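As the next step, I selected for study one protein, both as residues and as discrete backbone shape codes, as given directly below:
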Amino acid sequence: MNDNYHFNVKRKRPEELYNKVSDYFRGEILNQYARSKSIMKIQEKITIRALELLNLRKKNALILDAGSGPGFTAMYLNEIGYKTVALDIISEFLNFYNIKDLNPIAADMCFPPFKPNTFDAIISISALQWIYRDLMHDYMKPILKELSKSFFDILKPSSSVIIQFYPKNKEIMDKIAKTIVRNTGFNGNFIIDNPNSKKKRKIYLLLSKE
């Protein structure tokens, strides 16, 4: 990524207005999100792009959908033939869309309850911004460390993680990258689709475990 590339989102997002994701996704907001067909279609498009970047060669790969929400990504992965585990910290999300075939687990994605070398890939859509979103909050850095270490541990060798998220600015992206590189054996890079469009910009972080 070009070091001269910069952006800064001025509009306040939910992750900046609420301390925890569970404070925002509750009650009617949770229900509206989980039942939204438009959000489902958006996440399906993001998932298709994430799969392109992952370039999986194993047809029956076991994939973790980390921070799955109501299972939009996990359901799509399951439909096209991948074995999928949906994990989210908000247990109410796992009650939607009959995702029993996705092995739903209510747990914190920063502390996933899995053995080492379990998954062929990890996909996380629209979740990382809830974990690391503010350079001024020191408590977020150790949580990001735990997330990156956990992902590295539960991923099989020669496998990858793809994370799509909505950082507020490039400085946060750089901080995330430095934290992951310093604390794991991941190699990776950012991929930015439509970098100059505020509405269409999509940011992905691709991490590989050799």
